Amino acid sequence: MAEKRRLGELLIEASVLDKQRLQKALSEQKHSGKPLGVTLVQLGFVDERALLAVLGQQLDFPVVQVEGRRIAAEVLELVPYEIAIRHHCIPLHAETSGPGRELYLGMSDPTDVEAIDDVGFRTGMRINPVLVGYSQIEDAIQRRYKRMSFTVSLAEDISLQKLGVAAQRFVEEALGAPLEDLPAEAPGPVGPLLQAVRLWRGLQR
Predict the structure, then answer these.
(1) Is there a contact between 91 and 103 (Cβ–Cβ < 8 Å)?
(2) pLDDT above 80 for 81
(3) Burial call 17-48: b when 16+ CB within 10 Å, e when fewer
(4) What is the value of pTM for the model shown?
(5) What burial letters (b/e) apply to 134-172, b meaning 16+ CB within 10 Å?
(6) How are beta strands 102-107 and 89-95 bridged, if at all?
């Protein structure tokens, strides 16, 4: 993220933040160790979209909203889950036609040269970093990679829909209640299946 003092000054200049709240955020940030921008958003002092607008202008990077954006499974596969977690990034789009291969990479810190070099080396592609909100990347990593792994593993040989319906029926019969009335977790071997069924139901919405 941007340098702390400078980011705070920019937000104040943009009338997004006042000095009192900046000082409170800086104090909290010393304890949490999180980037100042993340701290400001989590404290409710700054809206993340306003923060991104200031950061995008300061860093001269395009700002991209991930919410509602479709990311192809083959693009997600270019950057493994553990690398996305390590560098707090999410692959958005790949250009494989033409003379060069390029990957547009959503990053909470698009100035992180180490992360860019690592992803570029692993993919063999030119990396075009874009700025994405911290919380959006958190959500995208958890939702997109879980959805991809779940779909691939369960739809390999049989219909995901049929399997999901059958699994839900089995869990409800085994535990003696409709899925909506079951607890968050269940003991014994049915427990993992219950979690898988809940995930499947979530993907259907």
Answers:
(1) yes
(2) yes
(3) beeebbeebeebbeeeeebbbbbbbbeebbeb
(4) 0.62
(5) bebbeebbeebbebbebeeebeeeeebeebbeebbeebb
(6) antiparallel
Which of 1, 102, 117 is CA-nearest to residue 58?
Answer: 1
CA-based radius of gyration for the chain = 21
**Cβ neighbourhood burial of 186 (10 Å; 0-12, 13-18, 19+):** middle
Mind listing the pLDDT tens digit for each residue in 141-163? 888 887 665 444 444 444 556 66
**Alpha carbon distance 197, 88 (integer Å):** 28
CA-CA distance, 108 to 129, in Å (whole number)?
A: 10
